[in-house]
User: Fold these one by one.
Assistant:
Number 1:
Amino acid sequence: MENSLLHTRIALLWGGWSDERPISKESATACLGALEEAGFSSVEMLDVAERETIRRLAAGDFDLAFVAMHGPFGEDGCIQGLLEVLHIPYTFSGVLASSMASDKAISRWVYEETGIPIAKGLSATDASKGTCAKILEALELPVFVKPAVNGSSHGVSKVSAPEELAPALELALQSSSHAVVEEAVAGMEITVPVIGGKDPRALPVIEVVTGAEFYDIKVKYEPSELHHVIPARLPEDVIARAQELALRAHTALGCWGASRSDFIVTPDGTPVILETNTIPGMTAASLLPDSAARSGMPFSELVTHLVEWALERPGVGTGALPRGAGEGA
């Protein structure tokens, strides 16, 4: 590895204001350890919720931002837009890909246009009787009700009876301006990480075994050996199809560096996509590092590649704005 890369001054961004702030800190702490293990000599964890963090980013104290934020403000294009304005390269996807992938209503449209199988569903902006009636007329129960913009299964409900729909919509709309309602698809839950810059590739498919109704926030951060089966217990042609669809989603959304697409594989072997995560969890229990390790890539190598791919991304600045840039004459 080039010695100059190891001297990159890295701001490891975590925190913010979303429901996933605690998990963000866990991801950042794990990434800090992996970056230090890889030999990076200047890495500092910074909470984006602290005003001093923004001042230091703008002052040019760092060469690159390693984004370990999840959910709103971190995974939806907000922090990416700030870093673009400051001309600071950053890990993972850009502004547009982040915002499209984080909005389940928009990403559903992208999947459909790209030929990726999706569950039957629709969007809702209120929990009125009229809205509930339209949903019950269009979709068969059970359904999942989700905030259109949120992460880690916060605000997600499974609705099996008509009287449960309005409360589920109200819960989802507490954290998002609109909700997505999808028919529940029966089958095996899998996830497919994709990594890379100009030439992304799919990593081993993980079968997610939960023992719960869905892969909720509690299950996601329990020890990986309790819930991850690698490789997934599926025929080779189904695994190849899932990897191809994850690559297609990654490319269609314009992701960079890494993504992780979640699917339900139906009994006939069709992978039906649920969502694409542009900043997958990066804790010891997380799916992306687990899959990368199974492919022969240790955590320290994974984070090193993420730094390399961030610096290679077309159109991203090469450091913070020079002092005085943009000041009036």
Number 2:
Amino acid sequence: MGKVAAAIFTTHVPRLMITDLEARKAYMGKNVTTFYDAMPALARVRLAALDFDTFVLFDTHWFTTLEYVINAHERLAGTYTSEELPAMLHDLEYGYRGDPELARGIEDVAMERGIRALASAARNLPLHYPTLNVMYYFNSDARRRVLSIGVCQTASVRNDLVFGAAVAEAIWKSDRTVVLVASGGMSHRFWDYDRILDHASADPTDISSTANRLYDERIMEWFKAGNHAAIIAAADDFRAHCSPEGRFSHYLMMAGALGAEAWNWRGEQFGRYEAAIGTGQSIFFFAPETRVTAASS
């Protein structure tokens, strides 16, 4: 019988892959992101001691339309360059074990529940940087399997929760011990072309609107309190007013897998709440018994 050992809500911003210290400062100015330290800290403090074998990751750059799609490749390997920001993210070599067995299990359970889903091993099915950037930090030795799942852009909040429940049932029916990863941001409105580089710092004052920042802060307080019922109740409104990344489906599918409104795990924040060219970004770790340490502040 499988289980979910922990869950992570995390940024995946391309600037994570800027390795040169001076280049980081040149792009972000004096307020450089804390995520360069926060992501390794989470991996070291929380994941290293956790007994699990598979990451199941909800990828906000992988948009699907007719159904939920699960990557069913046996092996995820190649060299990645971002079509969006090739100067910042290019020539990233990667190689992970996939999990076609669990992918097919999720497809079967979802279809049984009346949710259209497809476990695809189609040749050249692409991976996206919300999967690859996060695995670069959280799975640096490639010991754990990686199962990437797309965001269905036509799905409702309730669809996402039901699909998430199907993911949980498929995990339970397997022999996998899983860490769920919701890879994406919070509010997601960029600055316009003429002003965007003036707002490239990590300072929250560079969020594109005060209303978006305040909504993000409210959701983060609910993360910390384990009040997932409140987040789910606000999800449609958050979608309508703040254009969250991936329509916030990355969080909703994860929440659905952990009991939806009944889920009450408290979030432990790693790094600060930050801006990324107008968008809101954060990292939270959730587990049944989360201990807050100095490394997470």
Number 3:
Amino acid sequence: MLTDKQQGVLRGMVSGVIATLLALTISIVAHEPAFESAPGYPAALVHALTWDVLIVVCLLVNIGLLARHRFFTPDDIDGGGLTGGTPQAQILQSTLQNTLEQTVLAVSVHALWAVAMPHAWQAAVPAAAILFFVGRVLFWRGYARGAPARALGFALTFYPSVVMVFLIVGRLLLGLVW
């Protein structure tokens, strides 16, 4: 039997997976012109990196929030390496660490997607970048309230990368077989 917290996390994660699958599928099938790249792998890579500005903005904001907090909080101004940190600094540091990890994963996956997947599928990158942005906002807002409150935000940043990696690997494996 799952605890209430586990059930809350599961609801958030399942919701995130469903939103991810819908957003990626719709972006690939609908061919929204604003989400499409020009033909060719260099153009697809430029397209992916351009949309990834949304992801970089999330990292920048998170760094800025922690820096601002440290500047205005005497107990935290020396940084986490020299102090134990106030509870707020610990929360901001934790969200920054997770955002950094998710940023590295997402930008890497989007670059791989740009060079490994067909042109018609490139609209998935903007969809994933938008999900990341929305997910980070939800993650930050929910973090201090515990795992169930941040689960959907985490899922919206993590699962697009997971789904895209599986599709890339699947395409590569099919290429070996065919």
Number 4:
Amino acid sequence: MSKEESIPTAMVRRRRISLTWLVPIAALIFVGVLVWNQTMRERGPMISIVFDDAGGIGKGSEIRYRGVTIGIVRKVRLDRGLEGVEVNAELMQSASGLAVEGTEFWVVRAQLSLQRVAGLETLIGPNYIALRPGEAGAEFQRGFVALNAEPIAEPPADGSLRLVLRTDRLGTLASGSPMLYREIRVGTIRDAHLADDATGVFVHIDIDPKFVPLVREKTRFWRSGGVGFDFGLFSGLSVKADSLEALMMSSISLATPQKKPGEPALPGAEYELADEVDSDWLSWEPVIELVPSNSTRP
């Protein structure tokens, strides 16, 4: 036997991959594809919003509409002209219809003063961006310029009654201040502006649909709210406030006489706003049937 014949020859066999490993790998790939598809379906359009001041807004801040989060801020940076702040945000797919021409954005911050109380949820949580959508069917839009404050509400379309009060000064009244009847909120102050000849101020108010019958031709309006002090030699110091809500902010109260109250008020009717209440007005006790809550004014 030769030496070459005595040396064994090594045989190399390829190791086969067990099919049992393919099952979990395929399952992981399948799950990954499902997650990716779901993520892509939920992702909506990227939009750009330019603010004068985006204080309190950063990466991860929310965009909310009707109290629901519908978008997330992805990037915040100065704009190219260094005159504003550009916020890039991603909307959810379900909210993509809000990125249309006419949509208005603003930052919600806490406001606590004698004139206005708003955004109190941001005292214990982060600031966020709110919006008011444009008209349905408007064209899609990616770039927006934000408002510096919450926009003034448009004239109501829910049956509310909008009236105008004339006064020589605005004082501490502000948008959002309450309208009160017997210390019950029945409406809201919407806005105010100077008369065309600058001789006075017009205050626009909305009376809620249910309380529209309270307002007649002879209804009287006066400034209320705040705190009043009275000191007597024998009675001591007394403090008066119309209501807790009126204590927090200025308000307007109204009363209607029971005798000859006049016809129901028409939209846009003008009334005088008195600085103080007449004692006779507080004694008026008309019987007025209110509109049910689920009804609207014809």
